[in-house]
């Protein structure tokens, strides 16, 4: 069985931080929180969770599914064969609903925090802490 | 060789744009229809790009989201593709298509897609379903005054006329990428 911890990908954290910096540069959709985490599924993949002000125009997914995109290897983010970068994105109001209603991907993140398999790469000094306390409540 | 999924999405997008252009000639009763078709054209153009990136293994979004009309989330996923010197041309085209200004316009157009109102809120203006004005009175999108030519029709028509051909250029650039 594969055991995965946050030290499984030690050389990727710097790349993820660089990626998060690129996302912080998108000023009309301010990044509030970025978490690098390792859920139970796809143990070889890389997971990044971002809370973005006004993501998706502030709409809420009617199927109670957080928006997840996976990226294959690109020159900007090389990965090993078969490895994928998962990016889950939401906005504060949707995250609040997702935590309250126990949406699958929100629960996955909460579990990763409980198992100490989540690392905060960026938290906005005003809203980031509130979002973290919401996730970890 | 049959067209890839991106070309199929783009053909439908172009047809929606042509329909919008024709509907423009029929006056205020059709303003909501023009905007609706512009929204469809933009939505499908963005989904065309996602589809071809998906085929090329660059990114993947669950098919479940194909049936969502709001397209801003797709645009936000596209602009977050990790960049590098080697994919600069393609990234430049995507960044130009989805500039801050354009995403703002797409956000405004997305807001015209009918959505369930928040609890206790009025039914918002959209291009398809009855909505409530600020006084709570029900109106049809086709009613006079729901949309105007200058601020709504021309604004979204201009957006669609830019997005569809630029999406076509991006599909061509994706096809040129070394595998």
Walk me through the structure:
- The complex is a heterodimer of chains A (137) and B (179).
- Chain A has 137 residues and is α+β, with helices and mostly antiparallel strands.
- Chain A has a single domain (10-135), classed as Beta Polymerase, domain 2 (2-Layer Sandwich), CATH 3.30.460.
- In chain A, 29% of the residues lie in helices and 23% in strands.
- Chain A is built from four helices and five strands; from the N terminus they run H-E-E-E-E-H-H-E-H.
- Chain A has a five-stranded mixed β-sheet, with helices on both faces.
- In chain A, 33% of the residues are buried.
- Chain B is mainly alpha-helical and 179 residues long.
- Chain B has one domain (5-115, 149-176): Four Helix Bundle (Hemerythrin (Met), subunit A) (Up-down Bundle), CATH 1.20.120.
- Chain B has helices spanning 5-23, 31-55, 72-78, 88-97, 100-110, 149-176, and strands at residues 59-61, 131-132, 138-139.
- Chain B has a two-stranded antiparallel sheet.
- In chain B, helix 1 (5-23) packs antiparallel against helix 6 (149-176), helix 2 runs parallel beside helix 6 and helix 4 packs antiparallel against helix 6 (149-176).
- The longest helix of chain B has 28 residues, at 149-176.
- The model of chain B has no long low-confidence stretch (mean pLDDT 91).
- Chain A binds chain B through residues 19, 22-23, 26-29, 52, 54-57, 59, 62-63, 65, 67-72, 74-77, 84-85, 87, 89, and chain B through 57-62, 64-65, 70, 72-73, 76-77, 79-87, 100, 103-104, 107, 110-111, 115-116.
- Strand 3 (67-71) of chain A pairs antiparallel with strand 1 (59-61) of chain B, so a sheet runs across the interface.
